[in-house]
Amino acid sequence: MRPSERPARAEPSAESARSRGTAAILWKFGVMLALAVAIALAPTPEGVDERGMLMLGIFVATIVGLILQPLPTPAVSLVGLAAAMITGAMGMTPVRVDVAGGGTASLPIEALAGFANTTVLLIVAAFFISDGFLLTGLGRRIALLFIRVLGRTPLGIAYGMAATDLALAPATPSNTARAGGVVYPIIRSIAEVQGSTPESDESRTKVGAYLTFTAAIVNTITSAMFITAMAGNPQAVSQAAALGIDVTWGGWALAALVPGALSLLAVPWVMSKIYAPTTRATPEAPRMARDELAQMGRLSFGETVMIFTFVLLLVLWIFGPALSTALNAALGTRLQLDATTAAFVGIAVMLVTRVLTWKDMARNASAWNTFIFFAVLVGMAEHLNRLGVIGWIGEVVSGLVGGMPWLVAFAILTLVYFYAHYLFASNTAQIVAMYGVFLGAAVAAGAPPLFAALVFGFIGNLFGALSHYASGPSGVIYGSGYVKVGEWFRTGFIMSIVVILIWTLAGGAWMALLGLWEGAAPPFG
Question: I want to staple 28 with a disulfide (CB 3.0 to 4.6 A). Which of 62, 70, 306, 450 is the partner?
């Protein structure tokens, strides 16, 4: 039989592909169900509400679902919420929740408390603010300005992209938007000008692999430097507040200033040594940036509004609480200038000036997905705390490091918290699941409360490039095809050690200088 006469291999039908997909989904839900049932049937510890283990089982199963991804993240969250409601783990009884500006409010349904959480609302509002940088082109203009000055070498471009990411970070809680919507498109353009594409190893390693991978690691640093630079950071602040630890926007930024700046200087250079580009010069990049800036022309009205809004938000986030307190005392007013209020003021400015429209907000799927995902998980986590489960878990974790000098216990807890992220596909998922527990254990071991809250907050961002699935930005970069899986795991682990050393040594010394170690027990006794 001639080759041309051989029967063609049957292609898999759409129906069989759907069947395999359904089987995979059912298998993953089966794992989630088994975990939920196993935990729910465990004996209820002393001091925990009778619904506590059932709620813990559903919560753990939901977190595992976020890792296995049988369905998109918001869908998994809603399935978990439905399970909690139908089993009575989260009932239809009223619950008191915190509201902006202090005080509490009553919600008619216990299971929906997370949808009124001010932290969740702040995160969603900040997504819309970040839209302004993308829609007006201000983010791209900032990046091109840095490339025009620093873009003659791959190392210079990497520093320019780092500066861009840093400039946008305070008002862009979607680190995926910064990396994928602003930084990556410019890097891709520069790489292709240099003939660097993902088509072959020789091509991708010219400059594209180095620039994209470096951008992913840099993004973890800028995300760690501001509360509003990553969607999960406000949730960490909220959990710290539940433990009586007050973390302010300015306090976080000041504590992260020195280790963050040193990391931004070190990461591009270290990457140029251990993951070096084969192209050493990029003389065309500054010219490309100048040409694109010339096409953009002068600052548009929208860009001008965004600059004003950005400055206004920084002022309100740093000085808002103190300013509102002073004005209320002097004028008898009832101003509320907390972080959530400030974010909505920024959105109001953008809407009134037509820089942002409701259609733009409606199209922002990431914001609405995050709203559902966070509202459900935050509501679950708060409910677990009310049921006494979080306190019990904290006691168990504390017992595992009990008796150790607090500095040793703290080192163990932070390293476990950092590298546990290999099991997570989302920074925010791990923060919701583990931040409060590990912070409580560290404080119980004798660590300074504010110092510990900040360190675990920083780590919640710094582990975002451990793997190609560790965070949204990592997924964007890996999806470009420039970095292979083996390279990612090897180089990502090496860079995690570099970052840990910088934030431990320089960051620890800086925070000691700021007085954040005060009130600690003796470190080794």
Answer: 70
**Residue 281 gets which letter from DSSP?**
-
Instruction: Give the residue from 202, 159, 203, 206 showing the smallest Cα distance to 183.
Output: 159
Using a 10 angstrom Cβ sphere, with 0-12 exposed, 13-18 middle and 19 or more buried, the burial of residue 40 is buried
Tell me if 253 sits within 8 A of 514, measured CB to CB: no
pLDDT average per 10 residues of sequence, the chain (525 residues): 49 64 86 94 91 92 83 88 91 62 59 75 74 80 81 89 89 76 75 83 93 95 94 90 91 96 97 93 83 91 90 78 83 80 88 93 82 81 80 77 87 92 78 87 91 96 89 81 89 96 96 84 56
Which DSSP helix (H) or strand (E) runs through 104?
strand 104-107
Which one, of 452, 359, 356, 331, lies nearest residue 401 by Cα? 452
Cβ(455)–Cβ(245) below 8 Å? no
Q: Which residues contact 221 (CB under 8 A, 6 or more apart)?
A: 162, 260, 263, 264, 267, 461, 462, 499
Sign of CA dihedral 428, 434, 438, 440: positive
Q: What proportions of the chain, in percent to the nearest 5, are helix, strand and coil? A: 75, 0, 25
